[in-house]
Amino acid sequence: MAENDLSRMNRYKDIITKVGNDLEMDPAVICGIISRESRAGSVLEDGWCPNRYGFGLMQVDRRYYPEPEKTGEWNSEEHINQGTEILIGFIKKIQAKFPSWSKEQQFKGGISAYNAGPGNVQTYEGMDIGTQGDDYANDVVARAQWFKMNGF
């Protein structure tokens, strides 16, 4: 799937790289989320997913983050910055919730929480149960690894 998004993702490479550097987040991880959430924008209508809850490349959900469209255009640096800050916040929540987990496990738990919330993450082995497709974190990590090997 990630390879199908590469040409679209490259349109946002400079923004993704800048946000990643500014927030100390691997740009490939940002790409993994963008690929999973919006297929690098290909499934969006005027920046929204079909159900009109998620906004932008990173699908910031207006049910939890009111009026995300006011943070910037759907494909803007401001939007990607907002989505990445949300991800970082979830990683920190998982670090606090599971201090005995390795950094890698906490990071992956934060990715899962980005989709289904930190309350959904109960065990490392079962963290994806209840996420979209029951495979969210595993899929995002696989996509991120692919983007890392392909220029991000």
Describe this structure in words.
The chain is mostly helical. 53% of the residues lie in helices and 3% in strands. The chain is built from six helices and two strands, in the order H-H-H-E-E-H-H-H. It has helices at residues 2-10, 13-23, 27-38, 77-97, 103-116, 136-149, and strands at 54-55, 60-61. The chain has a two-stranded antiparallel ribbon. Strand 1 (54-55) and strand 2 (60-61) form a beta hairpin. Helix 3 (27-38) crosses helix 6 (136-149), helix 4 crosses helix 5 and helix 5 (103-116) crosses helix 6 (136-149). One of its GO terms (cellular component) is extracellular region. Keywords: Antimicrobial, Bacteriolytic enzyme, Glycosidase, Hydrolase. It catalyses: Hydrolysis of (1->4)-beta-linkages between N-acetylmuramic acid and N-acetyl-D-glucosamine residues in a peptidoglycan and between N-acetyl-D-glucosamine residues in chitodextrins. GO terms for molecular function: lysozyme activity.
